[in-house]
Amino acid sequence: MPLRAASTRSPERQDLNFLLAALPASEYRHLAADLDPVHLQSGQLLAMPDEPSRWVYFVRDAVVSLLVPMSDGSAVEGATIGNEGMVGIEVF
Fold it and tell me: Which of 31, 56, 59, 88 is deepest in the core (most CB within 10 A)?
């Protein structure tokens, strides 16, 4: 399963995400081998509705907005995720 540690900068530590930091050390070491830090751009799309997600993002020092598309083509923010959470739970 592909995992990404989402960031707007490139700190060395992967555990700036509270979910990752809460893992027991042995579990984190096992998972850390598959973590790949990525740099996100403002406005970057991470997933689209009705399309399978390819990645799980453990947010570190960014804020991700989950937008809900409306029938008139506009979008409404449905959730905001920071370093306390992750994006892509549907992959699990």
Answer: 59
